[in-house]
């Protein structure tokens, strides 16, 4: 079993919809949780970063971490075609060392 | 400013040959990471450096893989006696001293024939 599980999709939703992306993990030592966005043929770019449990909001994006359930989520409100990309969850123990990534979910926003 | 750069962007090599992949991090970034990303998968950690010191090489698959960063800036990932299973995208990332964000480069697509 992988340390981080993520539904690979693909996921297609109409423009303006709310998107929910999720990851589960098995290592309770993880404390730093990130969401990266990866456009086709590009490297991953950091989208959201959260430490420990709780919510964090940045514009149309909200990241949630539930350490008791070992479950993290990314919500995208008012989705736009430019949000079409692969979304990767990533996590680490101390924040400054290696990242453990999920498989990535391929998202398409249909105009 | 300039981001992380990697060279070559594409490398095709025959099985059994050695290859060297180069990473030039963002100026001032003391931490440098190497990952391997298979198609349809997330990046998988290989190794990382703080300055010139290799801090963790637990992700290197076997002793054919090695990495160095002799002057604490540019890093080279070397794969000896390449095998077809080594074919993948190899990504480098760097991180500044007061940030948790890793900035990824465009990657080197390695194909072993």
Ordered list of secondary-structure elements with their pairings:
The complex is a heterodimer of chains A (111) and B (113).
Chain A: E1 4-6, E2 11-14, E3 19-25, E4 32-38, E5 45-51, E6 54-58, E7 61-66, E8 71-76, E9 85-92, E10 100-101, E11 105-110
Parallel strand pairs in A: 2-11
Antiparallel strand pairs in A: 1-3, 3-8, 4-5, 4-9, 6-7, 7-8, 9-10, 9-11
Chain B: E1 5-7, E2 10-13, E3 19-24, E4 31-37, E5 44-50, E6 53-56, E7 65-68, E8 75-79, E9 88-95, E10 103-104, E11 108-112
In summary, what is this structure?
Chain A is an all-beta fold and 111 residues long.
Characterization of this structure:
- Chain A has no helices and eleven strands.
- With 111 residues, chain A is mainly beta.
- Chain A is globular.
- In chain A, the strands form two sheets. In chain A, strands 2, 4, 5, 9, 10 and 11 form a six-stranded mixed sheet that branches. Chain A has a five-stranded antiparallel sheet with strand order 1-3-8-7-6, with no helix packed on it.
- Chain B is globular.
- Chain B is an all-beta fold and 113 residues long.
- The mean pLDDT of chain B is 96.
- In chain B, the strands form two sheets. In chain B, strands 2, 4, 5, 6, 9, 10 and 11 form a seven-stranded mixed sheet that branches. A four-stranded antiparallel sheet of chain B has the order 1-3-8-7, with no helix packed on it.
């Amino acid at each position: 079993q992988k340390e981080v599980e993520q539904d690979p999709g693909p996921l297609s939703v109409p423009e303006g919809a709310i998107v929910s992306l999720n990851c589960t993990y098995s290592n309770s030592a993880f404390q730093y949780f990130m969401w990266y966005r990866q456009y086709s043929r590009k490297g991953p770019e950091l989208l959201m970063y959260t430490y420990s449990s709780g919510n964090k909001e940045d514009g149309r994006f909200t990241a949630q971490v539930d350490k008791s359930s070992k479950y993290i989520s990314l919500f995208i409100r008012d989705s736009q075609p430019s949000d079409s990309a692969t979304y990767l969850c990533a996590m680490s123990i101390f924040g400054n060392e290696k990242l453990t990534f999920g498989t990535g979910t391929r998202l398409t926003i249909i105009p | 400013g300039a981001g992380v750069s990697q060279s070559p962007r594409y490398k095709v090599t025959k099985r059994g040959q050695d290859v060297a992949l180069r990473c030039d991090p963002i100026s001032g970034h003391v931490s440098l990471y190497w990952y391997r990303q298979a198609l349809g998968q997330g990046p998988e950690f290989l190794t990382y450096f703080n300055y010139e010191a290799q801090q963790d090489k637990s992700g290197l698959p076997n002793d054919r893989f090695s990495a160095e960063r002799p002057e604490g800036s540019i890093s080279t990932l070397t794969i000896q006696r390449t095998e077809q299973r080594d074919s993948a995208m190899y990504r480098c990332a760097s991180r500044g001293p007061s940030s948790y964000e890793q900035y990824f480069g465009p990657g080197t697509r390695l194909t072993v024939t």
